[in-house]
Write a structure and sequence with these properties.
The chain folds into two domains: 18-71, no CATH class; 92-365, Alpha-Beta Barrel (TIM Barrel), CATH 3.20.20.100. 44% of the residues lie in helices and 11% in strands. The protein contains 14 helices and ten strands. The radius of gyration is 22 Å and the shape is globular.
Length: 372
Amino acid sequence: MQPNPSENPRSPQHVTRRDALKTTVAAALASTASVAGLRSYEERNLVAQEAQNAANGANAANGAAQVDGRSGATRTSFAVKPRAKLNAKVPLAKLGKDLVVSRVILGGNLIGGYAHARDLIYVSDLIKAYHTEQKCVETFMLAEECGINAFLGDWNQGQMMANYWKWTDGKMKLISQCTDDPDVVKRTIDCGSAAVYPQGETCDRLVREGKLDRLAEIVETIRDAGLPAGLGAHRVETLQAALDFGIVPDFWMKTYHPLTYWSAQHPQECDNVYCRRPDDTKAFMEARPEPWVAFKTLAAGAVSPQQGFRFALDGGADFLCVGMYDFQIVDDINIYTDIAANPSGARTRRALPDVDRAEYERKLEEAEEADA
């Protein structure tokens, strides 16, 4: 039964993906108009200065590295950027035997309020305040318009997903992470998850404590429930230890990003490095046939999508789990699909085949009609 919005003033009205698309188009037109309609001298001057800065950078001798003045505490240039038009939906592939998932999975840290913000203590509260229930629904619907059909969260977000499925005609799948607590494992399986895995920190700790039998138990519990079971890790040693113990998951969840950003070079690690040995991670995955979901591909915002996505795909990742605000989704998917359509030739790991989207969506429609 459709909820009564008057009973919960934060609950969104029932909307369809078509409604969401209209909203997206309207927003794009509005933002484009804001560029075309620059009125003040300051606005025109700032945009002109931005163009001049870009030209200066392009003409720099031998491509020498330029200082990015916009990354400092005070911005030195500004540009009003219209929302891009979606070029193509993100492709689909199989995560495990039968689960069809988009190659880009919407990460749950931002929506859940789990911020990697180095030493900024207010950011988690800020993103929690931004992601109201209405904003979460809008974000999911926009993601689905871009071809994303999976969200990575945990059992605490199960109710939010249940509301989304009830209030809209959205088909977003929930891929959930769990801890080693038996009650949490059960809750995670029962909250509508399409796939489950013990999360990275849990796997790292269990291996560190020598509790590999417990890790194997969790994987089997997930499989006994009829769901694909994964293994997550921040350290490649964790995955190797699990494999040596005889644990072979249906998919791997492993951090993967370059170490070229400046804070990765700091002698003291402070929530700023998530994949300490990317070369070893690449080598490990090279020998594994199971699907690999790479996460923290942008090092929690320290790496650009252009660099992070290329690095992950060249390194052999089959899926990318990316935390995105709603205003980043279209741009990020355009970047991903462009890179995926124009491979560099550096990838040496086997390629997981795409699932034909038209055929997949046709079968979904047929199943819905049969259920009705």
